[in-house]
Design goal:
alpha+beta; five-stranded antiparallel sheet; 19 helices
Length: about 500
């Protein structure tokens, strides 16, 4: 998944919690039932002072029956207000770790409903968590402090494509892939394609600034957002940006909101940029006997003057997992495979494919296969899409990270990941969007095994340290949420974190 949902938008004032640091995430009042992310304790031990600074929270007041009644009046009745325990438990988790039960869920369908709910929450200092379809991997949609969950997933009534202006106007609950499908009907494309695009909401993608395979050539979600309608933590309805490609009027609040993980407001509408759809695609698969050699092949392709739409990577563990899960004839003798997609004019990509083919062979590929038909191309990419479900069947716990490094450091990062795997004796599977340096190291383990989890803690910290030391970042697309929050001091100094906190407090 590429970060499909928003982080907690906390109405009221944020403040430091002078309590046992790790308990903020583990045993926070009645709402929290949290199997600790393996790496948080490692971060606490490594730098206790910075860890405490990174963990922020809010005052929390349990909801009264009077407050629930006010919410029901705002929503025009109780049909879309959920308070039963069974319903609340359905909103207590996402695709990451943890179980945090909200006090009430509001299935909103208008900006007026959102505005009035947030005004009430701000007045009574009730935490608010915006939520889409909860497919995020960083814990961004978890109602850590209980309170109100604002569910936008039913709010999908607007999906307008303006062919002349090359824009889409969408409600927050619209499924991301539906936007691209609608654009395709008029020869246009919405490029961001997170792996969760067939289930994730556009509001969640905007909140997390989601990525995906096509981001190598076309950029991430923020590059396609022209304007937003947002409800601020005080309940005000504001608009940022507009319908124009160029807009330098005032501060760029649109880019500030996109990627803020729901902490600055609730997105209620988006105006998105569309581009002409490439007329043709052509895909290749290359197998390598050495994982680092595959990394150098990526560099060779990217520095050749050819920019593929996608370059995806699978290591040997993921290759074997897919073959066990759904046999497809993948090269089991390879230590790594690359999937490369070229798009554009048919004659242009034919020539580019010939050049890329030669580059891969020169880089030491054991074999290079070109998809000759659209069916073969679809089957080739199906292998990459099956990695996550395939490896999930191997062990009960899957810890998914998405550390990212500069393109020039891809070979070095792959080598460091291989070393970490051997050093800690963990079951580490590596795949991802290698063309832009966004790899997905996944650790397969059993959280009931304390000895194994100690190794996992150390390994996760080592992965982040490796990425940062190579000039990289903690997250390329999944977001920070609660899963990586404790590691923020690894990447940012005290004053940078303090500035982010000031921005948050100003919006509150």
């Amino acid at each position: 998944n590429d970060g499909a949902n928003s982080q907690t938008c906390l109405a009221g004032n944020s403040l430091r919690i002078p309590m046992p640091r790790i308990n903020f995430l583990i045993k926070r009042r009645k709402h929290c039932h949290f199997p600790l992310h393996a790496s948080l304790e490692a971060a606490r031990k490594a730098d206790p002072a910075s860890f405490e600074f990174a963990i922020l929270g809010v005052m929390n007041v349990p909801l009264t029956s009077q407050t629930i009644e006010k919410i029901i009046r705002i929503m025009g009745g109780g049909d879309r207000v959920l308070t039963r325990k069974t319903d609340l438990l359905s909103y207590a988790y996402d695709a990451s770790f943890g179980l945090f039960v909200p006090d009430v869920v509001c299935q909103v369908k208008s900006v007026e409903e959102v505005s009035e709910i947030v005004k009430l929450a701000n007045e009574e200092k009730i935490p608010v968590t915006p939520r889409g379809h909860a497919s995020g991997l960083s814990g961004g949609a978890l109602p850590v402090e209980g309170g109100i969950v604002i569910d936008v997933s039913l709010w999908n009534d607007v999906l307008e494509i303006d062919k002349d202006d090359m824009i889409a106007i969408v409600s927050p609950g619209v499924i991301t892939a539906d936007i691209d499908r609608a654009a395709k009907k008029v020869g246009l494309m919405y490029p961001p394609d997170p792996s969760s695009s067939n289930v994730s909401t556009i509001a969640g993608n905007l909140a997390e600034n989601s990525g995906g395979p096509r981001c190598l050539k076309y950029g991430v979600t923020k590059d396609y957002v022209l304007g937003l309608q947002v409800v601020t933590p005080e309940g005000h309805i504001i608009r940022t940006g507009g319908r124009t490609v160029k807009n330098v009027t005032g501060y760029d609040l649109t880019k500030l909101i996109v990627g803020s993980e729901g902490t600055l407001g609730v997105i209620t509408e988006a105006t998105l940029r569309l581009i002409p759809r490439p007329p043709a695609t052509l895909s290749l698969m290359a197998a390598f006997g050495d994982i680092v050699q595959a990394g150098y092949a990526i560099t060779d392709v990217l520095t050749s003057g050819i920019l593929p739409a996608k370059i995806e990577f699978m290591d040997q563990s993921s290759i074997r997992a897919v073959e066990n899960y759904h046999p497809m004839g993948l090269p089991l003798d390879a230590e790594a495979v690359l999937f490369i997609e070229l798009d554009g004019h048919p004659l242009a990509i034919r020539d580019e494919a010939a050049c890329v083919y030669q580059l891969l062979e020169n880089a030491g590929a054991l074999r290079v296969q070109k998809a000759e038909t659209s069916e073969e191309e679809e089957e080739m990419w199906k292998a990459r899409k099956l990695v996550s479900p395939a490896i999930a069947k191997h062990k009960p716990t899957k810890i998914s990270e998405d550390a990212t490094v500069p393109r020039s450091q891809i070979p070095a990062f792959l080598k460091r990941l291989r070393d970490i795997k051997h050093q800690f004796g963990i079951d580490l599977v590596v795949f991802g969007h290698a063309g832009d340096g966004n790899l997905h190291p996944n650790i397969l383990c059993d959280q009931r095994d304390r000895e194994e989890m100690e190794k996992v803690e150390q390994a996760v910290a080592a992965i982040f340290e490796a990425a940062i030391s190579l000039g990289g970042t903690l997250s390329g697309e999944h977001g920070i949420g609660i899963m990586k929050k404790a590691f923020m001091p690894m990447e940012f100094d005290h004053f940078s974190l303090e500035m982010m906190k000031r921005i948050k407090e100003a919006w509150d």
